[in-house]
Amino acid sequence: MLRVVPSAVLGTLFGGVAYAVWYACVACWHLLRCIQRLAQRNAKSTSPFAGKTVLVTTGRQAKTLHGVRALKEIGCRVVVADYQDMSASAVSTACDAVATLAPLDPGKVSEWVDHLEGIIRREKVDMVIPFSTINEALFIGVAKDWLARRLPDVTFLCEGLEMMARLDNKAMFSDMCMESNVPVPESGIVTSRAELEQTMRDVGGDMDVILKRIESTINRDEEIKVVMKGECAPESVRPTAEDPWQWQRFIRGTEYSAWFVCCNGHITFQGCYRSEGDLLFFDGIPVPDDVEKAISGLVARHKLSGHYAFDYFREESTGRFFVIECNPRASSVLEGVSQTPGWGASFFGRDMRSSTCYHKTGFWFHRNCWPFEASRTEGFWAWWDPLPVFVAEIAWPLEMLRIKGALKGGALPRMPRGLPIEAGKPLTAQFPGLFEALGLNYHHLDVNIGKVILPGRTAGREYAIFSEIEQDPQGSYLRGQARQRGSKPRILCDAAWVAAKLVGMNEMKPNITRLATDPVESMRASHGEQVVLGSAVDTMRNLIKQGKQFDVIVLPKLLLSEVPDSALAAGGCLLASETLPVGRGKKDETA
């Protein structure tokens, strides 16, 4: 069917309705907050967590909303952050303040971390609990590493980049499991089509195989393929060295996901559910004893802190379980146990497992909860917190369609594949002719995590960029600060290793001035570096008299206090060398 509604018209209509609902909810939120403050004006909390300010991320997701409510229940002040102003948690009565994060651009990790630091300082945050999108987990790992010494009083309930990358990368996680005696299927990596075909000849004749794109993010239908014994891999699977795929023995059985809150190697809360594709309903069940025992060993061995979800299969033929991958972030599994009273205390190290309550959750949008399915409650709705459901299931879906590329038009499948069980048939499949006429083209909407699933391969996680950051955190941080100040940033420092980290940047030509007292240092100067001899304080004063200004100044704390105000250019930054990041197992060059 031909398109009859231009994308500009449809986009304007969707945007108008979305923002009308959003601003109405914001106005109501302010009113409800005033009523709430009046009602609680003389109330005093006896909770040991009262007064703690906690920053949570990705407020549009249902799991985040459940976490926000749990933190407010134990007395915390909750700051909700997301990548746009509009989010369900932002209009929750449990939300005290909102913040908008910088875009997740792997080429601008430094800007993202700097922006997050600004929010933490402005809101006087005590703890950061990332609920995270798929791509955010690596960014937040970098932030923990880079800000650990700059913000020593702030707790990040997550791991640093090295561990987050090991858990997130399917192949590296498989190795971690084998080291910790956690059962995993036979597996390997292929980096070319020829290698894949050889692997299928070697192992594909003996077992069913599942192929997974290592860089996969959203579209499981495009990036996960099951190949039965003796069959050839689909032609669409084209691994490269930069975009590898993992093969695993395909386990016949039931797939589950187990979620854990961990603090310093101890599990403090957990839940489990049956996993089927991109789930849109959540029926909480206990974590089996054998799974909990194995995972607790891995958690203790690596002293993990944060949210972690482990996907596993229970094999039909043997009854054994096999862990297939890890999601190092909060999981929607928590929606099946989030009616547990006081479970927010698990984020602060209190073991809440003995009081776990299990329940079933669905969504009105997906027609899989009451009144469509009597046994499940609505995931966003609460009578005392009514506004999030309107943003999550009306405003944000329309905004997603408008901004995420779903208005491009084209033919729609009449029988879409890869749909969640009990999710309700998507509107695109119920009325394909109408949606083609409107120019809407998407697989399905997932209001639970605030995603629209589009056809085709998704952008990868850019593991190569994060690997470079992991290998040299100090250099990556310094280079990121320099890049933000243009192609020829002016750098002032007193350490040769700082200059060494900045010279030779391909896309930039920094002008480096290094303070030194030893004449030998002049002879050791690198290309693009000017060594100035003399007392550091006197030299800085002389440079200012000459009209010199700098975009980045990296000096010890004692010297930073002596830097004249006019030495720093507009938009520049002062960095204390003692607060620069040090990666795990790396030498501290600031010592």
Describe this structure in words.
There is one protein chain. The protein contains 18 helices and 23 strands. Helix 18 links the parallel strand 22 (550-555) and strand 23. Among the domains are: 9-160, Rossmann fold (3-Layer(aba) Sandwich), CATH 3.40.50.20; 186-249, 2-Layer Sandwich (Dna Ligase, domain 1); 473-579, 3-Layer(aba) Sandwich (Rossmann fold). With 591 residues, it is of the alpha/beta class. Helix content is 32%, strand content 20%. Strands 3-2-1-4-5 form a five-stranded parallel β-sheet, sandwiched between helices. It is globular, with a radius of gyration of 26 Å.
What are the main properties of this structure?
Dna Ligase, domain 1; 23 strands; Rossmann fold; 32% helix; 591 residues; alpha/beta; 5-stranded parallel sheet
Give a short summary of the structure.
With 591 residues, the protein is an alpha/beta fold. The chain is 32% helix and 20% strand.
